[in-house]
Amino acid sequence: MTSRKDSFLVLKNISRDFTRDNRSYRAIDNLSVGVEEGEFVAIVGPSGCGKSTLLRILQGLIPPTSGELLYKNHPQTGVNSDMAMVFQGFALLPWLSVKDNVALGLSARGRKAADIDRTVSFYIDKVGLEGYEEAYPRELSGGMKQRVGLARALAIEPKILLMDEPFSNLDALTSVTLRDEVLMLWKDQEMPVRTIIMVTHIIEEAILMADRVVVLSRRPTHVVREIDVDLPRPRNRKHPDFERLSDEIFSLIS
Amino acid sequence: MIPSFRRLSFLLPTLFVVAILSGVVLLFSRNPPSGVPVIPRAALADLPGDILQSLFRLFQAYLLSLLFAYLYGLAAALTRWGPRILIPILDILQSIPVLGFFPAVVLVMIPLFPTTKMGVEAASVILIATSMAWNMAFAVYESVRTAPSDLWDLFRGIRAPVWQWVLRFLVPVTLPKVIYNSVLSWTAGWYFLIACEMIAMGPVHYELPGLGSFLVSSTEKGHFGEALLGIGALIVTVMILDVFVFRPSLVWSHNYQIGEVEGPFSRISSPVYDFLASSETLAEVKKKAGHVGGQLVRFVWRRGRFGGGSLTIPDSFLRVVTVGGGILGGWVLLRSLFAGVHVVSGWVRQGIPWGSLSELPADLLFSILRLLAAYCVSLMWTIPVAYWVFKYPRLSRAVFPLAEVMASVPATALFPFVIVLVVQIFHSMNLASVILLMSGMQWYLLFNLLSGVGTFPSELREVSLTFGLRGRLFLRKVFLPFLLPSIVTGSITAFGGGWNALIVSEYVVYAQKDYGVRGIGAFLDRATYSGESPFLGVAALLVMTVVVVTANRLFWVPLYERVTRRYGYDV
Questions:
Q1: Å from A182 to nearest chain B CA?
Q2: Considering CB atoms only, which of A81, A94, A108 is closest to B473?
Q3: CB contact under 8 A, B466 and A92
Q4: What is the CATH number of domain A83-157+168-193?
Q5: Residue B160 DSSP label
Q6: CATH 3.40.50.300: which residues of chain A?
Q7: What is the 3-state secondary structure (H, E, C) of A27-59?
């Protein structure tokens, strides 16, 4: 796979090894992919294939064993603070209120209190949590917890939003609503975040949301195919092209 | 204030239990021990034999504790009145300082055996067991109570016979907690070994051959080198046990862990276990043994004609047991009360030593202040170490075994060194006493903090990284709040250890000289050894037990509940 020219974010021949019980495993093998600014990219693949590892390499949470990672044509070292992550298991701090959870990244950046307050309440409103500022995570439903996670990521106004299976810990109905809301936020002109990279194992979800689907193989993981999704939005899963794409990706994974 | 009053309602049963216990003791101790078999000790050549004797004593105590833990834990978990009656009693028993059982056990055991030596030996084993048994009983109780209800339903659904319940449910479910607590119990056993091998009551003084008495007599005589050698031997023994017994067992018990919950020792590794697990001959032996064992169980089973029955016991049998137990219990109760009243009224007629008793409140205060000081110092060094291990996880491989060994070294073994260093340099027995107290407190804190650090979710680590939480902000918003439940559990166990250590830390005899400070531990020591009036010992013990139980009920338990509710990480 060749990456597109002058990309926003480029992974070149990335490999990643893990050691467990003194044996070394290759989780990701020679993987190359590019992401352009303003794009919504979905990464799909069989379970356990290292999708989440890839996302963490993207942000610099774990270093690749070999290969090169370019962000805006510069090699990226360490954690990229232009990115924010939404976690599968929400990863909220149970001892902090909703407000303080959302404020986490801002206070880490040393913003002024008034500034933090303003930004936090703006994003809490955006994700539809107004009135729950003082609540604690354990008092919230799963869907609301993930809204807090989303607001926390958006609040630092990242250039790229990373989402690690953000809807897989939610019930079916909740995930449908939350998906739509993420798409609305993406199209919202008030939102600074233009680029989204989402990892998922649900093929439908990927086609429903993304501009492009990157299909990964089993371990050791590499890119099997990149598929552009140019169906009109809002997308309809009953559309024949939708089903054709879905079948195509399904056959690539299984 | 009403809820606090309700929380105090346990005081009455506490006093009741203590009264009954002392009554039972008095009932069986009509002929007080005489004869003074002090074995001349502390020749260096005896050291290997002493270690083996101590090891054997600890092993017996451990078996006894294990038996007690399963019987008591199961009774508490499976009967209706268990959680309401047996568990509070266990709580009280756990709160009585180990030395508190001394007079009771010695007085009961010695008349029960044909020779005094056998009686003292048995008393010593039981005394060691009182430092091992309670947490293991709690472990059995908790594992059975928290076993997934699906498992219960499954076993009930397949109408599992008793052997299947035991082999496939009870043992596997309890194994992880029981093994983990066994390791802690052995540590506690070593710690109190010294106190339990030197049995002195009033004028009567027994000494059993063993590592503990070796250490004491060599320090009493001021033989520094021999004491040092004894401690070295102790450390080597603890390490050998650790490598060849505890670690493999801990690793093995992880196979039975239900769910993904990370235990305190879940990151431990054991080359010995790996060797045993991968050995093919051993696997063959295990398979054969399992086959033969299975045949045996089935054979006994068919012969025993329990066939098809699940956990049902005939009603008539139950009734007989209940009635018989009731009558027996009532008789013991009545006789105990009678004996107790008789003896106590005898003491009262002798005259209550008000003069000595009036020192008790001030002594208690001094001891509490000393405990608090030792606790604060322990906290001040263990939290940074925990953070250090968190930042450099590889350190845990070194810190864990080190702490385990250090925790096993009996405080009393360290006394001569501490005393020589502190008293002769700083001229302060108070400081020495606080340091000795720390030896009984800090390791519990460290263990709990490290186990907390071990369960730090990778998610939280990633959140902190993605949002750039570093340094102080990370400590304040993520690390310390996450660790808070572990700090509280560690504090509870540390204070439990501290109260126990109080008795051996406030009054020390070294090189024929007494070193003491004012405190309730020293008070109890004097009362036990001098035999001035039995009233004093009982009073000190009662005060201490009530203080410990009260502190637990009014402070620690509510705090623990609050903290786990607010800071428990399970979102």
A1: 20
A2: A108
A3: no
A4: 3.40.50.300
A5: -
A6: 1-79+195-254, 83-157+168-193
A7: EEEEEEEEECCCCEEEEECCCCCCHHHHHHHHH
Domain A1-79+195-254 bears CATH identifier 3.40.50.1860: no
Cα–Cα distance measured from residue B552 to residue B95, given in angstroms and rounded to the nearest whole number? 9
Query: Could you count the other beta carbons within 10 Å of the beta carbon of residue A117?
Result: 15
| Contact across the interface for A96 and B469, Cβ inside 8 Å | no
Tell me if A108 and B478 make a contact (CB, 8 A cut-off).
no
Reported as a single tens digit per residue, the pLDDT across A162-189 is 999 999 988 989 999 999 999 999 988 8
Å from B145 to nearest chain A CA? 24
What is d(CA B229, CA B235) in angstroms, rounded to the nearest whole number?
10
Task: Find, among B420, B391, B415, the residue nearest to B505 by Cα.
Answer: B415
Is B467 in contact with A108 (Cβ distance < 8 A)?
A: yes
Q: By mean pLDDT, which of B68-72, B300-304, B473-477 is the weakest?
A: B300-304
Quick check: B385 pLDDT over 70? yes
According to the model, what pLDDT value does residue A220 have? 86
Interface test with A, best of B465, B467, B476 (most A CBs within 10 A): B467
Write out the two tokens for B287: 């398979």
Q: What is the pTM of this model?
A: 0.76
Separation between Cα atoms, residue B542 and residue B100, nearest integer Å: 9
Which residues of chain A does B467 touch, with a Cβ-Cβ cutoff of 8 Å?
84, 104-105, 108, 152, 156
Cα gap B142→B155, rounded to integer Å: 19
Does the pLDDT of residue B3 top 70, yes or no?
no
Separation between Cα atoms, residue A252 and residue A230, nearest integer Å: 19
Q: Minimal Cα–Cα distance from B563 to chain A, Å?
A: 10
Are the beta carbons of B179 and B250 closer than 8 angstroms? Answer: yes
Alpha-carbon gap, residue A143 to B241, rounded angstroms: 51
Q: How far is A37 from chain B (nearest CA, A)?
A: 20
Tokens of A89: 């298991």
Name every chain B residue with its beta carbon within 8 A of the beta carbon of A19.
Answer: none
Q: What is the DSSP string of B273-322?
A: HHHHHH-HHHHHHHHHHHHHHHHHHHHHHHHHT-TT--S---HHHHHHHH
Are A94 and A100 within 8 A, CB to CB?
no
CA-CA distance, B441 to B490, in Å (whole number)?
9
Q: Which residues of B touch A (CB under 8 A)?
A: 457, 459-460, 462-463, 465-470, 473, 477-478, 481-482, 484, 566-571
Nearest to A90 among B468, B477, B571 (CB): B571
- Is B301's pLDDT higher than 70? no
Partners of B471 on chain A (C-beta within 8 Å) are none
pLDDT at B63: 94
- State the residue for tokens 């049902």: B312
